[in-house]
Write a structure and sequence with these properties.
There is one protein chain. By secondary structure, this protein is of the alpha/beta class. The chain folds into 2 domains: about 60 residues, Met-10+ protein-like domains (GMP Synthetase, Chain A, domain 3); about 180 residues, Rossmann fold, CATH 3.40.50.150. Strands 9-8-7-10-11-13-12 form a 7-stranded mixed beta sheet, with helices on both faces. The protein has a 4-stranded mixed beta sheet with strand order 1-2-3-4. A two-stranded antiparallel ribbon has the order 5-6. It starts with 7 loop residues before the first strand and ends with a strand.
């Protein structure tokens, strides 16, 4: 690599670089060419020009060098995903989380993944566990299009079912049909609404450990983790559910002194 150093993520054939505001165009081009020469899989270099934002979790990137495309073919944990980096959300930093969650699913369980994006959690769970079926919910229409392609690409049409639409409306429809899930995975974006009400609506209590397990993601500073746990407990009370906290994990940094936190709990 050249003497120039800039943070970047590699997603299959595309590298996304975060250049400082004062970086010169020539330096960007030079770094991009070095990056491609030292990483044979990288054919395109893009610049990150906006943060992920909104409920659809879209970001903005600008072309720097290489092939002019924003569509990625990305592989992890024996799965393959295609998506557009501007139209859909995908984090390679959640690769270990997807693998870990898949290992926590038991044989024959019925799983719901909320905020599923292009279905990486759903596909990883279906491929990495003996779940009976995985339902994959996402509001972003473009992400659902890629999700459908990815489910077919990974040969999981009989194991993963797309549930497109707003989870509030989807959960209400499922609740009317008395649908309940053994496991609910919530890799939610940074939004004010916890959406725990919808998760509790689709969960069941149960003796002998058969209550719904929920894997809930939130964002906070280290000294705010206890407040996240209290929020989960408060939402459970509002929904008249008894819960047991199983595990609390820092699942990666998302900024200076700020973490993605996963709270694992069971409905009793």
């Amino acid at each position: 690599m050249s003497s120039l150093k800039f943070p970047f993520d590699i997603l299959g054939n595309i590298a996304i670089v975060k250049f400082p505001d004062k970086a010169k165009s020539l330096d960007k081009k030079r770094f991009a060419k070095t990056l491609m020469s030292e990483n044979n899989s990288v054919k395109t270099v893009l610049e990150k020009v906006g943060k992920f934002s909104g409920r659809l979790r879209k970001q903005k990137t600008a072309y720097v060098a290489g092939e002019k495309t924003k569509e990625v073919l990305y592989r992890e944990n024996g799965c393959v995903f295609r998506f557009n980096v501007d139209d859909t959300y995908f984090s390679p930093r959640l690769s270990n989380e997807r693998k870990e969650i898949s290992k926590l699913i038991k044989k024959g369980e019925k799983v719901l993944v909320m905020f599923a994006g292009v279905s990486p959690f759903s596909i990883a769970i279906a491929k990495g566990s003996d779940a009976a079926i995985v339902y994959s919910n996402e509001i972003n229409r473009k992400a659902n299009e890629y999700g459908k392609m990815n489910i077919e690409r990974n040969k999981l049409k009989d194991r993963v079912v797309l549930l497109p639409g707003d989870i509030k409306k989807v959960a209400s429809r499922l609740a009317e049909k008395k649908e309940k899930f053994d496991v609910i995975v919530m890799p939610r974006p940074q939004l004010k609404d916890s959406f725990l009400r919808e998760a509790f609506l689709l969960s069941r209590g149960g003796k002998l450990g058969k209550g719904t397990r929920i894997y809930y993601y939130d964002f906070c500073k280290e000294d705010e983790i206890d407040s996240i746990i209290e929020k989960v407990k408060d939402e459970a009370k509002k929904s008249k559910k008894r819960i047991k906290i199983l595990n609390v994990k820092k699942a990666g940094e998302v900024g200076p002194y700020r973490y993605r936190v996963r709270v694992d709990f069971k409905v009793l």
